[in-house]
Amino acid sequence: MKDSNPQLIVEDLKKSYSGHSVVKSLNLSLNRGEFVSLLGPSGCGKTTTLRMIGGFEEPDSGTITMDDRVINHIPPHRRPINTVFQQYALFPHLTVGGNIAFGMECAGKDRKHIRRMTGEMLDLVNLPGLENRAIHSLSGGQQQRVAIARALVNHPSLLLLDEPLGALDLKLRQNMQEELKRIQQQVGITFLYVTHDQEEALTLSDRIGVMEGGVLQQWGTPEDIYNEPRNSFVASFVGESNILDGDMIRDRKVRFCGREFRCVDRKREGHYKNRVVIRPEDIRLRDPSEAEEKENALSGRVLSALFKGVHWEMAVESHGLHWKVHSTAKAEPGDNVAMIIKPDAIHVMFEELPG
To answer: Is the pLDDT of residue 21 over 50?
Structure first.
């Protein structure tokens, strides 16, 4: 979990409210200049974790270390950290420039410095020349950019972002994702981003921590999280999946749906339940005759087909299970098909059994 020279280390962090454990023994570390996301459903503990790192909540136990200094008891305004909230928290009585300048004025910066930095920040967030505009006259996306500029102007070592795009419509949210990534790469500041949107996390992040029930379920690159989920929760929450019981017979051989399939995983010693994950886009529909001719194949019948724009989403019944298949070619409901599943499309999870 620890990196060779991390900027931020969170160790054994715990937080409860009224006897209910919200964050349970959380451990993670961030490298300088990374874009890291905490991803999970509502109530999983991700925002509470962010608030403890920012100093807005005090942990029950555990340590938060930044640049080799424990910051648990340092108040928020003295930490080298700024936060961008979902509701922006802009000052309605101040102009765009006044909002951006607020932190610099509190820090006692001179007017020349404030004017120069305000202009630079407006250029950074693609709002040049709007320093005299009233906040209420801006769109949601523009207000979000002002909030980001205000948070970055004093050059924090770490920027926390708590679902900052949640209030925006889909197209604007996608545009802001691109802007956020550009800004982060340009300024080189570490970003810790909280979201429940899996696509957002996969698009933006260098690494992702998937949380559920106050526990960090998996920590890794977007590719690791998507292609090699550690358990059924991660597999179902990140992307769409077909998840079924299997039996790891030996290295690179797994059995499910009454047949043996070649895979790329190795058999693991220990007390495990094998679960098989197959992504819908990794299934190829072919002529039904190929179900018997090919090794990694199952026969099935198409139940439904929905057009999703870039692909067709089909439900296929096979061996008593309803499979989800994504394909650019449509099969008609009622068609008999063969589902071809290549070895590298089969991921075997080893979920520990109690006891």
So the answer is: yes
pLDDT exceeds cutoff 80 at 345: yes
Q: How confident is the model at residue 1 (pLDDT cuts 50, 70, 90)?
A: very low
CATH of domain 240-352: 2.40.50.140
pLDDT value at position 4?
60
For the chain, give the secondary structure using H, E and C: CCCCCCCEEEEEEEEEECCEEEEEEEEEEECCCCEEEEECCCCCCHHHHHHHHHCCCCCCEEEEEECCEECCCCCHHHCCEEEECCCCCCCCCCEHHHHHHHHHHHCCCCHHHHHHHHHHHHHHCCCCCCCCCEHHHCCHHHHHHHHHHHHHCCCCCEEEEECCCCCCCHHHHHHHHHHHHHHHHHHCCEEEEEECCHHHHHHHCCEEEEEECCEEEEEECHHHHHHCCCCHHHHHHCCCCEEEECEEEECCEEEECCEEEECCCCCCCCCEEEEEEECHHHEEEECCCHHHHCCCEEEEEEEEEEECCCCEEEEEEECCEEEEEEECCCCCCCCEEEEEECHHHCEEEEEECCC
Mean pLDDT of the chain: 92
CATH class of 8-232: alpha beta
Q: How do the domains of the chain map onto residue ranges?
A: 8-232, 240-352
User: pLDDT tens for residues 262-301?
Assistant: 999 999 988 889 999 999 999 999 999 988 878 899 999 9
Nearest 5°: CA angle at 233, between 269 and 350? 10
